[in-house]
Amino acid sequence: MDHFDETPAPEEKRRRRGIYILPSLFTTASLFAGFYAIVQAMNGNFEYAPLAIFIAAILDALDGRIARLTHTESDFGAEYDSLVDMVSFGLAPALIMYEWALSGMGKLGWLAAFIYTAGAGLRLARFNTQTGVADKRYFRGLPSPAAAAVVVGLVWVLHANGVPGKEISIAALIVTVMAGVLMVSNVRYRSFKDVDLRGRVSFMTILAMPLVFVLLFQNPPQVLFLTFFVYALSGPLGFVFRRVHHEPKDRPEKHPHGRV
Predict the structure, then answer these.
(1) In sequence order, what are the beta bridge partners of 139?
(2) I need a labelling partner for 236 at 20 to 30 A (CA). Which of 142, 175, 189, 209 fits?
């Protein structure tokens, strides 16, 4: 939701308390995709469950933009969107990973799934409290849709290649826990909200777009997983690079009496 410094007029306050059908339809569709993913994971259909989460992420990206384009933002829409995100990107990915790889690890498995779920909840709560205050160019912590894409993307890729989740349960646990930790970390991630989609682009960019679609349709699970995995790594790598790049130079040691 956009933050306005000016006090809204009485008419705008009444409008923002309303419920608007168009963005709510997309939010509800995202909720349905998350619920569908949980049901498919419970039935062992791991080729459909991850796909439903990616569809939920697309719908989640659309509902806010549609609300802004149609001037139908509301407090109800913001709260509803957060609750849906908790289901589709917090609870559903954890249950999918648990059913696929972590269920055979006993307490360790469901604790790892819970860490991810708790991280998503804390991440969403922190995001809601910082709306209008934080720099819109960056996210603080890994966004929950991206974390969900990493977790379910791993399931999708390995299941598509015939790798049973129980055989790589340790690796699955590490990915799940790390995704949960990155969501509540202070690591910065680019939001790409400053990208002007209506601006002019170079001719080479236009030529690259068909290549992206070709790669995506050649192997959707692998391309989507690698894309979001690289994005998840970009935060910690950028943090390390900034720390090294801005490391203060060694200062000359001072004499015990205060002289150099």
Answers:
(1) 189
(2) 209
Q: Which helix (H) or strand (E) holds 114?
A: helix 107-129
SS percent in the chain: helix, strand, coil, step 5 = 70, 0, 25
Parallel/antiparallel/unpaired status of strands 188-190 and 138-140 = antiparallel
Which residues, 6 or more positions from 22, have their beta carbon under 8 angstroms from its beta carbon?
Answer: 66, 67, 70, 72
Please report how the helices 49-69 and 75-85 are oriented relative to each other, as an axis angle in degrees rounded to 10.
170
- Token couple for 59: 């719908």
Contact indicator for 23, 66 with CB cutoff of 8 Å: yes
Write out pLDDT tens, residues 8-56. Answer: 444 444 445 557 888 899 999 999 999 999 999 999 999 999 999 999 9
